[in-house]
């Protein structure tokens, strides 16, 4: 299986409580939250599988409250696992490149 999906959009809610402490006076979305948004965008495509590794995460630019994220993903079989490569962008360009490995029994 190799498939490319583009167009999953996520709005970064400025009211999210994470912005109160990350960072006061200069709020940015923690990188882990962006990786979580990627996982949420692909999990329905991989029923019965779980993230077994974050193989790569390259953070290119900050994500600010109110940004709209565009998540483009590529899926590739890799034996007993699936590699998901994602590029997350905002209106200013790419902000994160991430590669997640999913394993477990695909249903």
From TrEMBL:
Q: Which intervals hold domain ApeI dehydratase-like?
A: 10-77
What is this protein called in UniProt? 3-hydroxyacyl-[acyl-carrier-protein] dehydratase
Concerning SUPFAM superfamilies, the annotation shows: Thioesterase/thiol ester dehydrase-isomerase
**Which species expresses this protein natively?**
Umezawaea tangerina
Question: At the top level of its lineage, which domain of life is listed?
Answer: Bacteria
Q: Which Gene3D superfamilies match?
A: Hotdog Thioesterase
Q: Which Pfam families match?
A: ApeI-like
Instruction: Kindly list the organism's lineage.
Output: Bacteria, Bacillati, Actinomycetota, Actinomycetes, Pseudonocardiales
